[in-house]
Amino acid sequence: MSAPGGTLPQRDGLPGVLRLATEALKAAVVGAFALVVVTSFLQVVARYVFAWPFAWAEELVRLANIWCVLLAVGFGIAYSAHFRIGILSDMLPPRLRRVLDIVVQGLMALIALGMVVLGASFVQRTMMTSTPMLGIPHGIAYAAVPVGFAAALAVSLARLVAALRDREAR
Amino acid sequence: MLASLFLSFAALLLLGLPIAYALLLSAALALYVAGIDLSIVPQRMFNSLDSFPLVAVPLFVFAGELMNKAGVSRRLIALAIALVGHFKGGLGHVNVVSSMLFAGISGSATADAAALGKVLIPAMQREKYDLDFAIAITAASATIGPIIPPSIIMVVYGSMTNLSIGQLFLAGVVPGFLMGASFLLLSYLYAIRRNYPSHSPASWRELRQAFRQAFFPLMAVAIVFGGIVGGVFTPTEAGAVAVAYTLLLSLAYDRISLRDLYETAFRCALLTSAILIILGAASSFSWVVARAQLPGLLGTAIVEISPNAAVQLLVIILFILVIGMFLEGMAAMIILIPVLSPMSLSMGMDPIHFATVVVVGIVIGTITPPMGLLLYVTCGVVEAPLRTVTRIIWVFVAAMVAVLLLTAYVPAITTFLPTLLAR
């Protein structure tokens, strides 16, 4: 279940709704990424070709980048893309490794849950003010943190369940 | 507070938690114990990511990946063969020269090592080069990628310290070329000692042909590297232009479909996220570190070791090299910057010069066992075990340390270009 560079846990076993949600989230990540790339390029064109930089573009690019980074955190877990040190896990015998995996996934789920809760209260407190250029409420921009970690929480929980089942099956 | 922060961080890392998660939890624990409201954790994460210069990170990650998609490595390698293949141990030199060309478009070492290694290591094996040398020179010369501009690691350094990323880029040019020169020398010495073959010299016609084939990729180097060094583009702009150009290139060479593009963008988003989430998580960690006044404590401690700035710098370099052996480069740098960068001022050192020393030191860590990410990547390309290179790599590490010391103690190497071009 924790093969490096692996795929989403139990990809084929995912119920239709979940699979749809996964694809939608992936599209959102790619969409935010595309927004970063295209807007940055248009900004260069606007500045050099038309000598007319648009100030709101910078804000848009920054926000799209933050959303992209945070929305992708969960996928990063699913695809083992996060930087980590696997030395202990590599040294352990398979049985202990499974126990360690459960501990790690549990801790990660807890941390993600904490970020969702803390992030949500942060969002609530900042809904009244708006960003300078685009006029979006700050809270909506900040929502990237709880939303991103909610996805990460979902992935960690899925992996935790898979790891526990895997253990029972043996 | 500090002891529990670092101990819990180390323990969580060892358990196998992602670095970002280990940073978050250890910082949150320290804040909780100190009775500080934990809501600063998401707040600082957001604010540290809310930076326009950081946008250059996804752009350069994407440009590097698109360059691989476009099949640029094959063309640049062919050009390098026509240029330096006829020297003794030709493919070793080719490896270094292609890495330097790559470095002018790409900002990360892992992308370079994977792209070039895939082509060059098997080619070197066919010509009876030893596997340890082939892997070691590929991994070592890939480290030039983040030293010669553009450089993702310098983008992160600059945005964390408010130093000019453009100036940091310029400061890396000469050290990058010095690294290249030292690897060429090593490659030549190995070629003589182990009697490696050479290619027959390219005729004018072949050379012209190679240049023509590599013309558009070379233009990418000229636009990105030239645009940055010439001061035409800001780093972020250079990234945007690099993406547009490499995308055009991969479309023109008919190497990418829409589906491909979607998946490539997704993978680049994942890598960007993996890098930047560490930055976001480290912001709370470094807040705790700063609140406990660790930079000041270390500053005092280092003065007690020696009042001499040169000795202090040596201590810092050794510290970076040792940390680099055990922690992934980007993460190590993100954690160390808030601690180290204030020290450059108390030592009376130019911050751009200091930053270059730190970056070169960190990059050396990517090829030192036991945790050199680049070694794993390069060995992985040919599915060789890590122990293949754990001996020979130290020769290359020694060469890089020599360049590092030169960079550290001859300030002109880094400050010459930034001051020249700032006028």
| Basic shape of chain A | elongated
Q: Which class of secondary structure composition applies to the elements of chain A? A: mainly alpha
Number of helices of chain B: 21
**Tell me about the biggest sheet of chain A?**
none
What is the succession of H and E elements of chain A? HHHHHHH
Q: Which chains make the largest contact?
A: A-B, 55 and 58 residues
What is the tally of beta strands of chain B? 0
Low-confidence stretches of chain A: 1-11
From the alpha carbons, calculate the radius of gyration of chain A and give it in angstroms.
20 Å
Which class do the helix and strand fractions of chain B yield? mainly alpha
How large is the count of helical segments of chain A?
A: 7
Strand content of chain A: under 5%
> Cα distance, first to last residue of chain B?
46 Å
Overall shape of chain B: it is globular
